[in-house]
## 1
Amino acid sequence: MFATIDPLTGGLIWEVEGQKEKEQKEKNKVKYVEIKDVNIQFNPRPSRLSLEEKLKLLEPIGEELINKDELINLLKTKTFPICYDGFEPSGRMHIAQGLLRALNVNRLVDAGCIFIFWVADWFALLNNKMGGDLNKIKNVGRYFIEVWKAAGMKMHNVKFLWASDEINKRPNDYWLRVLDLARKFNVSRIKRCGQIMGRNDDEQDDKMAVAQLFYPCMQCNDIFFLEADICQLGMDQRKVNMLAREYADKASDAYKPIIMSHHMMMGLLEGQVKMSKSDLNSAIFMEDSAEDVKKKIKNAYCPPQVIKDNPVLDYTKEIIFGWRNKLLIQRKPENGGDKEYISYAELEADFISGALHPGDLKPAVTLVLNELIQPVRDHFTKDPEARALLQEIRSYQVTK
Ligand SMILES: N[C@@H](Cc1ccc(O)cc1)C(=O)O
């Protein structure tokens, strides 16, 4: 028998807890796994590149850039421009978030930027992730950081800030502007940001939680709170970044951030416009085995000579030629023999003409993807802390 305090009356409530319930409770307890603070590696280095070289390096990141003149001006005037991206820690990490994110961070770091990762733990809570369990959310956040570290992200210019910590350190700075944002925009404008939380804009009011109105106001405020010069988030987050620029027209103490939105990588199967954690068939995960990757690429949509909406070409362009400057296609002599491509354009031209067949491209892509993921697999096998963390988050059995 045990007692808890009734929050309403303050009286004691007596309950009987059986052995089974006790065991279940013990099982559900979220473990805190000790991990070294990754921010100790933070030791910013300026870039030695010229303005032209920096622009060339950054060009492939932005599917949309608002705008180029402002970016040029920033790179000319600031040694360490501040870029930011935020993420809700939940579920598993796919290669778009793992490999493409790391690649783009490295490009920005090489151009002298400081990259702030906003670990959006409170946002995940607002958005009902991980059953609303903040401890689980935090562990998933720590897992994501471990993945990026192992994937080769250049941590010397990268800082991880936890929303829950930073907001509590400077609550006035944070909340006053959130309130101001809430005063300056109407409900329909905020509702138009639904996509940033993975929601439809046309959700009915009685189906919508008030949290869905809080969230965009908070995310918009993050930009100013972190003093970000560049919002370097995915295309799916562009609406709230545009809101920040609109806000700058309304508030005298706000500036217009530069928006550099990266491409959303396609899902594996036909018609999947974006790789999504909630659609397990659409994604290659950073914890997939070499065999899984092989199977997934083998089954991926990749009709001969068709480049439109072809995910295998998308990965080749964005990831393979991003991380490597060449790709070797190994073929039997009767199929044309081996060929090494040193640019994506050259490979695409051969694919269109039919000189390069999907059956030969797929194994080459599989090989490189597996090479890129292998250090992550090794880290989670060899490092005891990382291994314990992975075991812990696997116990949540999350699919989303
Ligand atoms: N909305 C982002 C997470 C995020 C939260 C707050 C931010 O300031 C930025 C990004 C997502 O869905 O992943």
Note: The longest strand covers residues 82-87.
## 2
Amino acid sequence: MIVLAGTIGAGKTSLTTLLAQHLNSKAFYESVDDNPVLPYFYQDPKKYAFLLQIYFLNKRMAQLKAADRVPNSVMDRSIFEDSLLFHLNADLGRATETEVAVYDSLLNNMLQELPQQDYHKRPELLIHINISFATMLNRIKKRNRPYEQITQDASLYDYYQTLNQRYSQWYENYHESPKIQIDGDQLDFVTDELARKRVLELVDQKLNTLHQTTAVAGNQQ
Ligand SMILES: Nc1ncnc2c1ncn2[C@@H]1O[C@H](COP(=O)(O)OP(=O)(O)OP(=O)(O)O)[C@@H](O)[C@H]1O
């Protein structure tokens, strides 16, 4: 299982599609437009932050179980980032300490579920698409989901900025699996054919290295 990571508008969904095609495998998407809680969350984050996380956690666990059965499956967001987003929301006063404690413990419990398959919960590779704050704002504007627009709610500017900053730190501290970072400002794999090729090359190289390491480890046993 390969998982994509990155802030809002980083291009996770698009790269998931590209990679699944490239690897001749299956893509697993978190559908955003039919998320019943998201518009409410943006309207009243304090009231709906906890419910939104429970919604995402439930969906992602189901997705993980389905993706686990497919070789080389590609997922459009990692379960680990939900925690990053929830902790940011909690720090902004949108969730109580108790809600955070309950969420953290539930996440932990769920990740330990099916212990015989525990290693499958850790992806083979995490791909972080790193974009600057300016690119993030452009993409959000261009995509035009009403509830994400800063013109609707000026406080979103700070939320997005902090989220973008926390992602860099989060990636540095991520050690659940092998990882690779793609420069999403430089490599616009959605519109630029050459960039697309380069990104797929980078991923192939990393996967080859990982497969070689696994083969060597296997031979030594
Ligand atoms: N765990 C979470 N907590 C709060 N909001 C979340 C969480 N996960 C996703 N979101 C929200 O859901 C929406 C979709 O986010 P996400 O980054 O997954 O997809 P995206 O914006 O389509 O990204 P991409 O363009 O990279 O595919 C955003 O408004 C984001 O803020």
Note: The beta strands are 2-5, 27-28, 74-75, 125-130, 179-183.
## 3
Amino acid sequence: MAEEARAAEEARLEEERAEAESARRAAAERQAEEERTAAEQAKRDAAAKATRDAEARAAQTPTLRESMTPVAPDLTEEEQPAPQEKRGLLGRLMGRAAPKTVVRRTLDDDMLEQLEELLITADMGVDTALRVTANMAEGRFGKKLSVAEIKELMADEITRIMDPVARPLPLYPKKPQVVLVVGVNGSGKTTTIGKLASQFRAAGKKVVIAAGDTFRAAAVEQLQVWGDRAGVPVLTAPQGSDPASLAFDAMGKAQADGADLLLIDTAGRLQNRSDLMEELAKIVRVIRKKDESAPHNTLLVLDATTGQNALNQVKVFQEISDVSGLVMTKLDGTAKGGVLVALADKFGLPIHAIGVGEQIDDLQPFDPQEFADALVGYER
Ligand SMILES: Nc1nc2c(ncn2[C@@H]2O[C@H](COP(=O)(O)OP(=O)(O)OP(=O)(O)O)[C@@H](O)[C@H]2O)c(=O)[nH]1
């Protein structure tokens, strides 16, 4: 009897142990599950944060498409009426909508004329606008195209003109590389120098700036602010002093410091062209005393909002200095960006960069396709 009781007691204890063990296992599984869920949640939170951060960064640096005003060919007013669909009995009963139709228009003289006008409105100039539309028509005249196809074709033709001139500022092993920055007052020279200095600095280059527009105290102060922001020394001279003498001193400092780049700001008074020409020529003469190959680049800064006037500025500055490349500023928000196509078509000068805002990071390399797409309002 006692044996039976012991056996029963053992069985009960065994059952209790088994229950305890299964409870422990269940608790361990629950904990593991909770940990897994927490880890997954943490992963999801991190991914969401990364997306938010990326979106915030993207929002800070608007793309050219967002910041430029497109001349988007608005070809919708002459849409053909959608053909009456034979929807069938069931379709009519169910009130099903007719499938969407893509409007196609014939690439004829009328259409080409409309496109030319649009391009001229964007300040592309008559000659270049004609070239673009003529290329568009080649082999396609009389064909029916959708608006998207027309935009793509137009963007592709513009890209073809721009491709050969899209070249970053060439860098030479020569130290210091001297970059003379020219352009009319207000075109964005000072801002561009600040942005360039900041970008080269960030790329590990040692940069020196010379505030060569010694007549305008405000210009010198502004350059100092940009220099501070970029962490780059700015050499200045008393108001009204000889810019060539400042350029000479700056060249000496850049050489002594082992600087990679010397950016020289210049005056932009075109009112007295021969004075400015003499001033620029003198700067070049004196810096050549220290380096015969200087300046290595003469950057002409142009303001996109001046439209066709930019063409005239290139002509004038080519006469008074040895322009080696262009920077087009203020492309953000202008509807006159087409002038850049005319410049590429007429002068073939390299376009090194474009300005798309007033902040230090708002200087971008020139990407012809992005530019052409933004100009015509085409999304790839
Ligand atoms: N929106 C926009 N504004 C710009 C851009 N580049 C320059 N600016 C603005 O244009 C104005 C003139 O720019 P500056 O850099 O002072 O022009 P500058 O050629 O040095 O002119 P001066 O100092 O008068 O010789 C300033 O208000 C700049 O902030 C750009 O790419 N986009």
Note: The first strand starts at residue 104 and ends at 106.
## 4
Amino acid sequence: MTAVASRPQAVNLAGVDWTAVEDDLNGWGAARLPGLLDPEACAATASLYERSELFRSRIVMRRHGFGEGEYQYFAYPLPPLVAELRTAAYPPLARIANRWRARFGEPAVPERLDSYLADCHAVGQTRPTPLLLKYEAGDYNRLHQDLYGALHFPLQIAVLLSRPGPDSEGGDFEGGSFVLTEQRPRSQSRAEVVPLAQGDAVIFPVRDRPAEGQRGPYRLTLRHGVSRITRGRRLTLGVIFHDAA
Ligand SMILES: O=C(O)CCC(=O)C(=O)O
Ligand SMILES: [Fe+2]
């Protein structure tokens, strides 16, 4: 058993104010969860990157034009901490997602992750999507959307596992900001940089979010990425709720 497996309280979701999360998502397109993982859980999760038997595939970003750096998708069964985070964060996020879907007259997604994944599996989206990303100095992640088939859950989470800051202050890396862009239809994009400390999470829309126009709701299109890492190494845990085709 890993240290992660033996600490079921490692995911600190109990104190989250989901109303504030929803307000932040509706207000500016992202919500920060400070200290979702403690430093020990961050280090234990980051160390999983070396355990290739835990993953179903490894992606070298340059080969696909995605940027510089690499990531690995976990295999099922997910490590306990990752499974716990995906399962526990799903219901409150589904409630937010369903209020968004209702504004467009779309049917609700299931209230529980296992039911939602059954829907994914029924349309051939069976491969797990939670991932660990690893960037070294000079690496970056181009603005993108994590869509893997016809079904997508509207929200996702990324957790910073490394310590930002200069070496002299114990930081693991510098640069490497989490960036979101948001585009109105037929308009220019707005960028939002989300400052993250080690263990902080950011919740953000996978593809779009509703905004209220004069003739009813319309969609703002979002993309996310990471600016260039200028020193050191930066690891992230990505939690995507839909499985992949
Ligand atoms: O490394 C990051 O902060 C972004 C990761 C990402 O693209 C994702 O989790 O989908
Ligand atoms: Fe992503």
Note: The chain is about 25% helix and 35% strand.
